[in-house]
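The records we work with from here on pair a chain with its fold. Here is one such record, which you should read through line by line:
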Amino acid sequence: MDRRHASNESFTSSLENDYIAAIAKPWRGGVSVTIKDVARRANVSVATVSRALNGHQNVAEAVRKRVLSVADELRYSPHHAARSLSSRRTQTIGVVLPDLYGEFFSELMRGIDQVARERGLHLLVSSYHGHPQEQGAALRTMRGRVDGLLLMSPFVDGAESLAEDLPAAMPVVLMNSALAASGRASVGVDNHGGAMAMMQHLLQAGHRRIAFIAGPDDNFDARERLRGYRDALAAGAPGVEPWVLPGDFDEASGHRAGQVLLEAEQRPDAVFAANDMMALGCLFALSQGGLRVPDDVALAGFDDIPLSRYVHPALTTMRVEIAELGARAIRQLLEPATPEAQEHALLAPRLVTRPSSASRATT
């Protein structure tokens, strides 16, 4: 680098820092606090403060901690409009989900938010309430407002229209999406393998008539779990017909399925629900009908939401590290070049056995 270029770069950096300092003035007890105040108190340069606050790696850890401590003490918060103008970045990550209700999405957001806070980033969260037609509108609102996007689009149909709505130049990571093979980076759960593992557990416990409460027909996760149920039943209990009841991934549909099973001429040995929320709704219906779990009917779910271990009996389920799914997705978005950030990462769920699925010999 020649001397003139270095001088120009230094001058530009100085202007940039002065501009940020001029308009980024949070108030502390009626006195404005600037980035220069933080630099002066921490005994470092303004550029070092900027790098430390932005999470850059070329800052010694001791210096970073000192800067963060001083910034916290002075209650300094960078003005993100100034930061955006100077770096052309918003320091914000967009998250578009089909819903925000329920423990699954709460855990997912917890994992995303933890990584975002560690990196000093903000989140802009939107839900399209399970309506595919609103998904495009939610995605379009993110354009120009975020630096990257995390999207959970579970719909099996509508892949072409979704691809059109995704901003071409923006980094995107898909979560649990049927578009995982579309060339976009993705993080998902091995739903088929997880359902196979649960069915093998129930079959090995001596259960043969195993009813399955399915998820929504147009949902990718639901289809994969149903496919795993059918494949495992065909392999482990040849000649046994699948027993599939409709569900919608919520407690109410699980409760309705439980009521249908209560009225059946012959009850199942076990019930496998495609997610824990439906399993809990079914558990309530079976209890209302006078059946005991697992003495009369074994029961299992999928996801291992926190509530599943606190009901009676505690629910056997496939543990999906839901928070880790969110954390893995945002890390892959922020660090696409690292070895662990696979282009298409698939997380394997783990069988968690609890009293709700005791073997027939035990009951």
Remarks:
- The first helix runs from residue 3 to 23.
